[in-house]
């Protein structure tokens, strides 16, 4: 797979001794990085290792404090992202940064619209967008609003946008975190085509399997410093993980638990009977008991998020009833469910979790404060004690309660959001994709926290697109398909294969799969 | 020091005061007459009281990512109601209470449109901005109602060593500061303004908070309206509080509170309101032709806002301010 002739060519991008400092933080120190034409180069590292900072230094978002960037051998200094873009460096960020209210075509060509007589040539715009969409094999109407498509499609549109300029360097920052298996395969096909055309691709992903599948070379960062460069076919996965984490693998042992030790006599913490919402999820039954971890599996768009939003009262149900401790409740918004001890950690971190302008302290205590009411502020001393406790427990970096939330990396933000709910001591904790886009170490950490919480008697509803993860942490797995609950697997029935075949089964095979 | 968010507004204020002193050497003198303080600066405080008061209400509204364009019209309504009541033989206290009750109702209306019906604030309050003056005209039947009531006169023109109007505005400012920063209210307001969806999902009663800030803004506008009409002993439905919403919004923005919502600074609003009022006074004292006053004001405001922008401070300061944290890039989020 690796094209050895590529190595002999001159690098497209040559970064030397890159150091990036923010007030009080050194995000990158003295990092060298080279990117050759016609290669897929994976950038690896834990949350906060400096991957995003390196990318942003390359794309002109941050200006390095010291160091040199050469593009095609010429030293360059990008003062703004648009300069980098004009120089042929295109970037697709982890979170889709497009305008949902504009059409697909407009998003793809935004700022580069074909013009005629000074006005935007709408027809040429559509045709060109259609051609670009075609090139990446996406068959959607270029005239439709971007927001009407699922996140995964939006992600592919972002890539089409990156291709709209004649990019020589394509930076993909976690492009796969919201894609399902088929879509990832599709993305990789596109990446290979581009690579063979000589495009240099910088690829960041937390999924080891994907990196091993697509990457020709891997560079590992740790704590803002360069660890080394590795070749996938000469470096084992375990070795790679251990250099990423900087420790031996003994600490990464499996999260082992199969409690099943719940008391059948007590009423379930949460009961849903025929609960449903027209257009979002078909009516379903569900029971969750104290001390139990229930997994929720299904493909993207199968109704996972819709289901948990109903349970949390974030959306209004159109049919059925919801019960807490056996008593029927009519939720009037999240507040009323929070008061009954239910917590939801949303999958959409940026839009529904992070309050970017506030400090880590305020973000962490937000739900607790909201539950206490504005008149009883959480005393500063108590807040700091709580915040420090969870900063230590979940290894949140930087360990500064006064840091602005926007200064934290994605994975650390996720930990703060998890802590936000943990300090409210909920009886049912709903985690929607809590490990998306975060590194192996933090992932295991979160899975362990979940196991511990359940052992202490908390009920947990765990939603994840990664089947291995769902199967590992859950006592029971509820499977969704096409916005419908299709089956529930328990005990020995919980294996990745069974969950997978339940997801994949056609409607008429439902009964055959149910255990 | 140059990095402090109040540096440029305070610098602008100092420059304006210096300009005034150059044109009028007795500008900074303060005299004590009959137990009252008089002087150029005292005049600024007195005339700036309504703007400051409205700006305090506006600060909270803007912090929730909203805006209230109707404050000028609400101020006119308050004056119209109070003066009409007094002119028809009612007593001043009842008149003021009645006016403020109506202003609270108007605030409830604005808050209802924004927080319950989800109408964009600029449109929702535009309704009352245009309809409000019509309402005030109906109350005064198109006349300028003049009154002569010693009690009513106090609120806008009275003195307790300092002008009563500025004492009211400053007390409200301090009370709001104590209330929002002493409790969790300020943090919750900022949270709702920064990310309304996340706040709702965290259990913050966003609707109540947003609704309340519009009611409070209405109340502030009402008191300001009473000050304005009391100061001239008359209710002028057409001109009372005209453009004061712009002054108030500018005061808030000059004070460093972002129109995108989130973090707010009441101290900044105080400085901002003083800058605006001093500017108005300066314009008159240096003899800018009245026709050009608004243009002149606009130029100064643009200058202050430019100086505050992160990009300018990058040029002035040797290094980028607070890194990625505080710079507000106009990023588009995928919702």
UniProtKB/TrEMBL annotation, chain A:
UniProt keywords, alphabetically: ATP-binding, Cell membrane, Membrane, Nucleotide-binding, Repeat, Sugar transport, Translocase, Transport
Membrane topology: Peripheral membrane protein
SMART domains, alphabetized: AAA
Localization (cell): Cell membrane
GO MF term set: ATP binding; ATP hydrolysis activity
Family matches, as SUPFAM superfamilies: P-loop containing nucleoside triphosphate hydrolases (SSF52540)
GO CC terms, sorted: plasma membrane
Keyword Coiled coil: no
ABC transporter domain boundaries: 13-248, 264-507
InterPro entries: AAA+_ATPase, ABC_carbohydrate_import_ATPase, ABC_transporter-like_ATP-bd, ABC_transporter-like_CS, P-loop_NTPase
Superkingdom in the source lineage: Bacteria
Protein name: Simple sugar transport system ATP-binding protein
Source taxonomy: Bacteria, Bacillati, Actinomycetota, Actinomycetes, Streptosporangiales
TrEMBL record, chain B:
Species lineage: Bacteria, Bacillati, Actinomycetota, Actinomycetes, Streptosporangiales
Keyword Ribosomal protein: no
Cited CDD domains: TM_PBP1_transp_AraH_like
One cellular component term from this protein's GO annotations in UniProt: plasma membrane
Stretches assigned to coiled coil: none
UniProt-recorded Gene Ontology molecular function terms: transmembrane transporter activity
Listed transmembrane segments: 37-62, 69-87, 93-114, 121-139, 159-179, 209-228, 240-259, 266-286, 292-310
Record flagged with keyword Nucleotidyltransferase: no
Places the protein is found: Cell membrane
The protein's name in its UniProt record: Sugar ABC transporter permease
Protein topology in the membrane: Multi-pass membrane protein
Keyword entries, A-Z: Cell membrane, Membrane, Transmembrane, Transmembrane helix
Pfam family, one: BPD_transp_2
């Amino acid at each position: 797979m690796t094209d050895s002739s590529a190595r002999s060519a001159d690098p497209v991008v040559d970064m030397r001794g890159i150091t990036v400092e923010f007030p009080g933080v050194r995000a990158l120190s003295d990092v060298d990085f080279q990117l050759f034409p016609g290669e897929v180069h994976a950038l690896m590292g834990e949350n906060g290792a400096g991957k995003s900072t390196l990318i942003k230094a390359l794309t002109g978002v941050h200006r390095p404090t010291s160091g040199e960037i050469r593009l095609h051998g010429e030293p360059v200094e990008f003062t703004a992202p648009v300069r980098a873009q004009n120089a042929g460096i295109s970037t697709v960020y982890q979170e889709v940064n497009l305008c949902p209210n504009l059409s697909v075509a407009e998003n793809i060509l935004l700022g580069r619209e074909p013009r005629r007589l000074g006005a935007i040539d709408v027809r040429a715009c559509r045709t060109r967008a259609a051609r670009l969409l075609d090139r990446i094999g996406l068959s959607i109407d270029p005239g439709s609003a971007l927001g009407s498509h699922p996140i995964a499609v939006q992600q592919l549109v972002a890539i089409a946008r990156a291709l709209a300029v004649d990019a020589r360097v394509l930076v993909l920052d976690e492009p796969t975190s919201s894609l399902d298996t088929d879509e990832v395969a599709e993305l990789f096909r596109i990446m290979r085509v581009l690579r063979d055309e000589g495009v240099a691709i910088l690829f960041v992903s937390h999924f080891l399997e994907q990196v091993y599948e697509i990457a020709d070379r891997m560079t590992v960062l740790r704590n803002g410093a360069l660890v080394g460069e590795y070749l996938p076919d000469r470096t084992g996965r375990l070795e790679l993980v251990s250099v990423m984490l900087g420790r031996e693998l003994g600490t990464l042992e499996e999260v082992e638990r199969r409690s099943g030790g719940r008391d059948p006599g007590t009423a379930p913490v949460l009961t849903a009977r025929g609960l449903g919402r027209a257009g979002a999820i078909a009516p379903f039954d569900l029971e969750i008991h104290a001390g139990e971890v229930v997994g929720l599996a299904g493909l993207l768009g199968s109704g996972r998020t819709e289901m948990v939003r109903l349970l949390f009262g974030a959306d209004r149900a159109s049919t059925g009833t919801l019960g807490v401790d056996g008593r029927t409740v009519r939720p009037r918004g999240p507040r009323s469910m929070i008061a009954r001890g239910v917590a939801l950690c949303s999958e959409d971190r940026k839009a529904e979790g992070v309050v970017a302008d506030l400090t880590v302290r305020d973000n962490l205590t937000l739900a607790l404060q909201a539950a206490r009411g504005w008149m009883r502020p959480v005393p500063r001393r108590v807040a700091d004690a709580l915040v420090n406790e969870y900063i230590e427990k979940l290894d949140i970096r930087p360990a500064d309660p006064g840091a602005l939330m926007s200064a934290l990396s994605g994975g650390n933000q996720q930990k703060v959001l998890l802590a936000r709910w943990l300090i409210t001591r909920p009886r049912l904790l709903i985690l929607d994709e809590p490990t998306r886009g975060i590194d192996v170490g933090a992932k295991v950490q979160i899975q362990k926290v979940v196991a511990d919480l359940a052992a202490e008697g908390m009920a947990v509803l765990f939603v994840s697109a990664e089947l291995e993860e769902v199967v590992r942490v859950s006592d029971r797995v509820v499977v969704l398909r096409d916005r419908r609950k299709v089956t529930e697997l328990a005990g020995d029935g919980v294996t990745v294969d069974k969950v997978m075949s339940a997801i994949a089964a056609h409607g008429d095979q439902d009964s055959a799969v149910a255990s | 020091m140059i990095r402090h968010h109040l540096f440029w507004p305070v610098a602008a204020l100092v420059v304006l005061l210096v300009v005034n002193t150059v044109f009028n050497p007795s500008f900074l003198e303060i005299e004590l007459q009959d137990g009252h303080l008089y002087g150029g600066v005292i005049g600024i405080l007195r005339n700036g009281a309504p703007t400051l008061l409205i700006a305090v209400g506006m600060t909270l509204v803007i912090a929730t990512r909203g805006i209230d364009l109707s404050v000028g019209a609400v101020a006119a309504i308050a004056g119209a109601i109070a003066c009409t009541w007094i002119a028809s033989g009612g007593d001043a206290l009842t008149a003021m209470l009645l006016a403020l009750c109506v202003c609270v109702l108007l605030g409830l209306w604005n808050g209802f449109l924004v927080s319950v019906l989800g109408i964009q604030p600029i449109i929702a309050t535009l309704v009352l901005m245009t309809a409000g003056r019509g309402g005030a005209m109906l109350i005064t039947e198109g006349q300028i109602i003049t009154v002569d009531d010693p009690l009513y006169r106090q609120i806008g023109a009275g003195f307790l060593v300092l002008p009563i109007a500025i004492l009211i505005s400053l007390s409200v400012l301090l009370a709001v500061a104590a209330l929002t920063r002493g409790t969790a209210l300020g943090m919750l307001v900022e949270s709702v303004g920064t990310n309304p969806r996340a706040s709702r999902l965290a259990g913050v009663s966003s609707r109540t908070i947003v609704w309340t800030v519009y009611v409070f803004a209405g109340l502030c506008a009402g008191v300001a309206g009473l000050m304005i009409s009391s100061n001239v002993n008359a209710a002028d439905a057409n001109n009372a509080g005209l453009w004061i919403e712009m002054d108030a919004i500018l005061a808030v923005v000059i004070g460093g509170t972002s129109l995108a919502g989130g973090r707010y600074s009441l101290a900044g609003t105080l400085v901002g309101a003083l800058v605006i009022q001093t500017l108005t006074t300066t314009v008159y004292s240096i003899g800018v032709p009245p026709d050009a006053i608004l243009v002149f004001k606009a130029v100064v405001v643009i200058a202050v806002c430019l100086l505050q922008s992160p990009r300018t401070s990058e040029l002035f300061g040797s290094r980028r301010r607070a890194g990625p944290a505080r710079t507000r890039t106009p990023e588009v989020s995928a919702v």
